[in-house]
Amino acid sequence: MEHGFTVKQVAKKLNLSEHTIRFYCDKGLIPAVQRDRNNNRIFTQESINWLTGVKYLRDSGMSLESIKKYVDLCLIGDETILERYSIIQEQRELAKIQLQEAKERLEYLEYKLSHYKDIIEHRIDDDMNPGKW
Amino acid sequence: MEHGFTVKQVAKKLNLSEHTIRFYCDKGLIPAVQRDRNNNRIFTQESINWLTGVKYLRDSGMSLESIKKYVDLCLIGDETILERYSIIQEQRELAKIQLQEAKERLEYLEYKLSHYKDIIEHRIDDDMNPGKW
DNA sequence: GTAAACCTTGAGAGTAGCTCTAAGTCAAGG
DNA sequence: CCTTGACTTAGAGCTACTCTCAAGGTTTAC
Questions:
Q1: Is B108 exposed, middle or buried (0-12, 13-18, 19+ CB in 10 A)?
Q2: Is the model's pTM score more than 0.70?
Q3: CA of A17: nucleotide with nearest C1'
Q4: Across the strands, what pairs with A87?
């Protein structure tokens, strides 16, 4: 209670499992998490923002090890800004590629689906899709 | 040798590791893979197509277990077409969500980058991004 | 007041999906 | 003949969860 949110509330808010959130905290990825007098983790808006950032970075493919390094750079302060900039820049390039790949995957599934639809509706033979797949 | 491609060639072509390809084969995910007289895996265009499909499904978040079930349905033939259709349909819905998430991630990183740029060019202080991240 | 219901905690086991290493086979090139 | 190199299998190791568990605090119900 106190001010701030419990693990459960944050899990719901950010669509992460409670396990994962505790796991990230234990790894030192979320620096701002406090404890209440019963040793329960309490999340302020600041720690929720950290967690949100970690989630974005993780989802864009960065390893927890690299995220940890990045978080530590953030905590050092101003003099690490150029280094942080280049980390995020590189990650953005990856995110661009991932976006492109996501589009391709969707296209593939759409194609596949229309192919199945043809078979189902128009009695085209199911040939196990040789040469197409 | 023979006709067809080696694991190495396919790995390069599809941007998968040789380990992963062998792993998929051993799991029964790629039914059409033959062996040459030295017991080496040889990939025809058909098996490459299978592998390509498996890769798309995997990349769109399907578990290897589910992919295996799907592949087995394909091998049974025509009478499984409706079931396969609904599997792919569901996967397409996931792919749509993933595409949206990929866009959001890219936006987040772009925002972050422009924020860093402002700090570097001395427009504003590095405040560790309270409330923003 | 105390029991039941419901949180939370840390420790640690289990899992998926690779990823890598070791040890060995085979075929061609110098 | 010997090295190089690509292949093989078995299995260990890794990351990032994911889950189970026992212990213990808090809340509500009577």
A1: buried
A2: yes
A3: D18
A4: none
Which secondary-structure segment (H or E) carries A93?
A: helix A81-122
Give the amino acid at A47: S
Exposure of A46 in the CB half-sphere (CA atoms within 13 A):
9
| CATH for A96 | 1.10.1660.10
Listed residue (A82, A53, A83) closest to A67, CA to CA: A53
The token pair that represents A49 in the structure block: 């923002």
- Spell out residues with C-beta < 7 A from strand C: A 6-8, 18-19, 22, 26, 39-41; B 17, 19-20, 23, 37-38, 58, 63-65
- Per the domain annotation, does A128 fall within a domain? no
Condensed to tens digits (0 to 9), the pLDDT of residues B52-89 reads 999 999 999 999 999 999 999 999 988 999 999 999 99
Quote the tokens at residue B22.
Answer: 């062998």
Out of B88, B98, B132, name the one closest to residue A112 (CB).
B88
A130 found inside a domain:
no
